[in-house]
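I hope you will forgive my troubling you with a question about protein structure. The matter concerns a single protein, recorded as an amino acid sequence and a row of backbone structure tokens. Please examine both parts with care and let me know of anything in them that strikes you as inconsistent. Here, with my thanks, is the record as I have it:
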Amino acid sequence: MSDYQRQHCQAHVDKAKHNEKHLNDVLKQVSLYPDWVVAVAFYVAVHYVEAYFTSTGLPEDQRHNVRNQVLSASSDSRLRKIRGRYMALYNRSRFARYFPTSHARIRPDEAKRFAGDACVFIPKSLGY
């Protein structure tokens, strides 16, 4: 990995950890803001995935649809392992962000599960 890749990868990991701090704050009020827990969890996961893409030479792209296509088409075993949970988080975060009643339709336990995927399962599976 080049110095640029290493620095860029670390920048994504740092951003993921920064987002995790905010997620921990929002989790304290998960019963009021389950939609925000899911939305922030997704952005934690995005930066771990982008870090992995950078470290392995996969194409990075800030557009969700391109990232999802790369993730879906990859034969990389680590990406295959997280694919289902990442895509579930992506889909639920879109619901959380764009549907006006999402705060009432996402259960707190569901939001906590997605937070665990973003902060534990995905980074651990990708080696972070």
In short: The domain at 3-126 is CATH 1.20.120.330 (Four Helix Bundle (Hemerythrin (Met), subunit A)). The chain has one domain: 3-126.
